[in-house]
């Protein structure tokens, strides 16, 4: 399994994966324009569509439930908890297949992506051995 590492404020201008501190379902976003955030948003300074697919999968949501503090309808995803989550270290072919599906969803701006999202969920679940 891979590890997520801490980043610096200088990384805000780079492509990154962003997420709110409090989530009720997977809602990780890709930022390619250097968006600035407040203290209720965290980010992983990686330009990695595979990781974005993993983060938004139902299998990773189960991983979040193992490490993050439960709140009313979801979880508190503060950095200290998120860095304990396990990320599957997938073979290159699996990484590319998931990344391709994520890019399709991003290109479609999230509209009509249900089939691709279901395939991502299935692929990621298999990587977790579910």
Task: Kindly describe this structure.
With 130 residues, this protein is of the alpha+beta class. It has one domain (9-127). It has five helices and six strands; from the N terminus they run E-E-E-E-H-H-E-E-H-H-H. It has a three-stranded antiparallel beta sheet with strand order 3-1-4, with no helix packed on it. Strands 2-6-5 form a three-stranded antiparallel beta sheet, with helices on one face. Helix 4 (92-107) packs antiparallel against helix 5. It is globular. The relative contact order is 0.19.
Q: Portion of residues in helices? A: 25-40%
Order of strands in the sheet with the most strands?
3-1-4
Number of strands: 6
Order of helices and strands: EEEEHHEEHHH
- SS-derived structural category: alpha+beta
Poorly predicted runs: none
Task: Quickly count the domains.
Answer: 1
